[in-house]
């Protein structure tokens, strides 16, 4: 039986797992593929470093040309991370006529135009299932399972670190810093957690989802990104009293020829499936015009779940090689002539419902003034709650307002007008409320 040789860049958490899955599951892979798969070369930063897996049968080097210039290597796997060196590897492999598998959402999001233009130009395959939601085959659902549908909406919990922190805050009433420290202790958050908790990791994944769902290459910098640092246990408690959980969502939808693409915390109704996705788990809620609502759930990170997705891409590409074709499915779901140049909608133009928490001095007429300003800005109020009176006139109280659907620009203008009023005693919290199609 023929064996396809793979060149692997990176033997870290994911790279080592890919090697071990290919070894452990070689029988089932052979039976499904009719060929064998073997990592014969690897390129790493420190070739002398000890590895968690046996590497006697892998030629390890720090020189990319050992893989890129080896005619026997038929598939290149990039698992080094970052955007610079990884970009050189991916473009180098494609230029050398080799198909690529990558888990690198940062590269695919930030250098989308460069990478995908090259993939279309060469007609080679790029496997990127592991770049979004780890082991959950969500990109394959988009590209294959839903290829007959218009994608109406995507809402995903795609960052396990944030979901773990929000779940702990919700279960224990812990403040953000405490829940983050616990996540770090358990290995669910990096020592420098900024990339995750400030929403950028989720935004990278959203860019990949948007590009695939709508056959486009959006500018990553146009995606609105907010993280979870400003969420307090009080907000989680008030939201729950109103029937909502707070989740960091990555949201995409087509709207009037533009694409809404935004990452921010959201109130999600407690009876929606996404509200019960807790801990480090990820879930992607996808609505197609025919299929209606679907949801995929699973582990969004970790060596083995991510490695599982990488291996599935390798098998896919090996099937192309076996069939004597370069690729079967266009990299961004659509053929080159059908790629669209979609713009990301400015945040001011989106429309949604809002949760607002005002901190005000407990005086007569305060609520009337807030609602007057909001009314003047076309914001209509769904409900208003003042959970407690203050014991002292100088002690602020919280006022929770849920609005009906409004334009973001109008909402922001009303908050700007309310901020200087003399009864406002602290920063106003704004969290958007998610409503789902399907
Ligand atoms: N970890 C996850 O759960 C997860 C989930 C989804 C996606 N991903 C993505 O998967 C990719 C790999 O992540 P990881 O967690 O496996 O990373 P990692 O554990 O830090 O491993 C990185 C590997 O790349 C090698 N490397 C770093 N810079 C290099 C360079 N310039 N040239 C050659 N090799 C280099 C390192 O070599 P040395 O070992 O010699 O230092 C190491 O083997 C990233 O794009 C990440 O975003 C990871």
List keywords for this structure.
single chain, 438 residues, alpha/beta, Rossmann fold, Dihydrodipicolinate Reductase, domain 2, Alpha-Beta Plaits, 3 domains, eleven-stranded mixed β-sheet, six-stranded parallel β-sheet, 15 helices, 17 strands, binds NADP nicotinamide-adenine-dinucleotide phosphate
Structure description:
Helix content is 35%, strand content 25%. Helix 8 (160-172) packs across helix 9 and helix 14 packs antiparallel against helix 15. By secondary structure, it is α/β, with parallel strands linked by helices. The protein has three domains: 3-135 and 303-335, 3-Layer(aba) Sandwich (Rossmann fold); 138-299, 2-Layer Sandwich (Dihydrodipicolinate Reductase, domain 2); 350-433, Alpha-Beta Plaits (2-Layer Sandwich), CATH 3.30.70.260. Strands 7, 8, 9, 10, 11, 12, 13, 14, 15, 16 and 17 form an eleven-stranded mixed β-sheet that branches. Strands 3-2-1-4-5-6 form a six-stranded parallel β-sheet, with helices on both faces. The model has no long low-confidence stretch (mean pLDDT 96). The protein has helices at residues 13-24, 26-33, 65-68, 84-95, 105-110, 112-122, 138-145, 160-172, 176-185, 194-197, 200-214, 233-241, 303-323, 366-376, 408-418, and strands at 3-9, 36-43, 59-61, 73-78, 100-102, 126-127, 151-157, 224-225, 244-255, 258-269, 281-288, 292-299, 351-361, 381-385, 396-403, 406-407, 429-433. The protein contains 15 helices and 17 strands. NADP nicotinamide-adenine-dinucleotide phosphate binds at residues 9-15, 43-46, 49, 79-81, 85, 103-104, 130, 134, 301-302, 306.
